[in-house]
């Protein structure tokens, strides 16, 4: 009877030791999971920070391009955050169960053999379930912690084609008091535009805020349209109506360096006498650095100038030959475009191509005369 009781006690001790050994092995596994999940918790916190960082960076780009895309990205970020929050909740639940099992397991190890034998099976079953749950958790799909912004130009064009222009440049504004109309051109100026995105060009000319519109017809009204653009996107047009000036090449003022005023040989020295086509009327100067000048009210296009010798008393071709035809933009700096080569009783037509200037003159270093000073556009 005593021996039977001894054998029974021995088998219980052995069984309890075996159960404790198994329990210790499970504790080691659970402790490893606890470390892994603590690291996972830190990684999830960092993932949330990464989402915030990516939100700041991507928003700077998105907000400048397409406001409506922000809503899509905000929804996507919410999904990412919700997934991480859900993963955090699951992780908290698993960690809570792990901690509880660890406490219970450690407590069983301190019990006597009979108590340990009674509780260890239930604890081991819980730990087996937790191991399975922990392994399944670790094999879950990797969570995304950033929202990438990568929109191709083709996609942008498709969006614009489908939904219309999302952003368009502001309308430019002419500086009307600085816009100047001439006979065959307009000198146009407008205010610069500051915008985000920036303006890449104005129609007509790059990023400059001025333009000389040339080759227009005199005495003609035009409506100008000015656009600001960003790549292929154009804003609304600014409008300005302007009229080119009248072209009257007989409308000029005569001035001379000096006037020949011998009462015995009177010279008219008038604009009218230079336009009548007569060789016996015209203008003449004294001797020196002399000039006979035509000043228009504004710059005019000139293709040719016709002059001629004055035949009156002792005046003749010799009083001008070797002189020059000149023009100026400012009545100070002069450009020579022809040489005076009079022939008796013949007009000389000096072809100059096409020059637009306000000031024109004949210049000579001696006596100077002409019976004609006729300007032509063609």
Task: Name the features.
single chain, 378 residues, alpha+beta, Immunoglobulin-like, Jelly Rolls, six-stranded antiparallel sheet, 5 helices, 39% helix
Helix-strand blueprint:
Elements: H1 2-65, H2 67-109, H3 113-138, H4 153-163, E1 180-181, E2 186-189, E3 201-203, E4 210-213, E5 221-230, E6 233-234, E7 238-243, E8 253-256, H5 271-275, E9 283-284, E10 290-308, E11 324-328, E12 334-339, E13 348-364, E14 369-370, E15 372-376
Helix pairs in contact: 1-2, 1-3, 2-3
Could you characterize what this model shows?
- The protein is of the alpha+beta class.
- It has three domains: 2-138; 168-243, Immunoglobulins (Immunoglobulin-like, Sandwich); 253-376, Galactose-binding domain-like (Jelly Rolls, Sandwich), CATH 2.60.120.
- Helices cover 39% and strands 24% of the residues.
- It has five helices and 15 strands.
- The protein has helices at residues 2-65, 67-109, 113-138, 153-163, 271-275, and strands at 180-181, 186-189, 201-203, 210-213, 221-230, 233-234, 238-243, 253-256, 283-284, 290-308, 324-328, 334-339, 348-364, 369-370, 372-376.
- The strands form four sheets. Strands 8, 10, 11, 12, 13 and 15 form a six-stranded antiparallel beta sheet that branches. Strands 3, 5, 6 and 7 form a four-stranded antiparallel beta sheet that branches.
- Strand 11 and strand 12 (334-339) form a beta hairpin.
- The longest helix has 64 residues, at 2-65.
- The mean pLDDT is 80.
């Amino acid at each position: 009877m005593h021996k039977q009781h001894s054998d029974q006690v021995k088998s219980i001790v052995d069984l309890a030791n075996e159960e404790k050994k198994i329990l210790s092995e499970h504790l080691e596994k659970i402790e490893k999971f606890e470390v892994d999940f603590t690291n996972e918790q830190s990684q999830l916190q960092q993932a949330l920070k990464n989402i915030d960082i990516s939100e700041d960076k991507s928003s700077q780009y998105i907000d400048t391009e397409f406001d409506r895309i922000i809503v899509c990205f905000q929804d996507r970020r919410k999904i990412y955050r919700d997934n991480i929050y859900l993963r955090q909740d699951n992780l908290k639940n698993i960690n809570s169960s792990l901690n509880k099992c660890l406490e219970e397991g450690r407590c069983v190890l301190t019990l006597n053999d009979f108590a340990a034998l009674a509780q260890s099976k239930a604890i081991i079953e819980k730990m087996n379930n937790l191991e399975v749950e922990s392994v399944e958790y670790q094999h879950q799909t990797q969570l995304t912690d950033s929202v990438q912004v990568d929109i191709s130009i083709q996609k942008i064009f498709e969006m614009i084609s489908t939904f219309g222009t999302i952003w368009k440049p502001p309308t430019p504004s002419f500086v009307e008091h600085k816009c100047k109309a001439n006979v065959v051109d307009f000198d146009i100026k407008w205010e610069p535009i500051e915008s985000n995105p920036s303006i890449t060009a104005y129609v007509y000319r790059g990023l400059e805020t001025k333009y000389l519109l040339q080759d227009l017809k005199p005495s003609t009204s035009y409506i100008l349209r000015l656009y600001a653009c960003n790549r292929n996107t154009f804003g609304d047009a600014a409008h300005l109506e302007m009229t080119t000036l009248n072209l009257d090449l007989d409308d000029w003022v005569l001035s001379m360096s000096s006037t020949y005023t011998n009462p015995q040989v009177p010279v008219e020295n008038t604009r009218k006498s230079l336009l009548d086509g007569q060789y016996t009327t015209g203008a003449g100067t004294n001797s020196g650095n002399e000039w006979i000048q035509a000043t228009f009210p504004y710059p005019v296009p000139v293709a040719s100038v016709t002059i001629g010798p004055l035949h009156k008393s002792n005046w003749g071709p010799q009083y001008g030959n070797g002189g020059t035809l000149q023009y100026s933009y400012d009545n100070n700096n002069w450009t020579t475009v022809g040489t005076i080569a009079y022939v008796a009783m013949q007009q000389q037509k000096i072809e100059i191509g096409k020059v637009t200037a306000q000031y024109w003159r004949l210049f000579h270093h001696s006596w100077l005369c002409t019976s004609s000073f006729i300007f032509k556009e063609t």
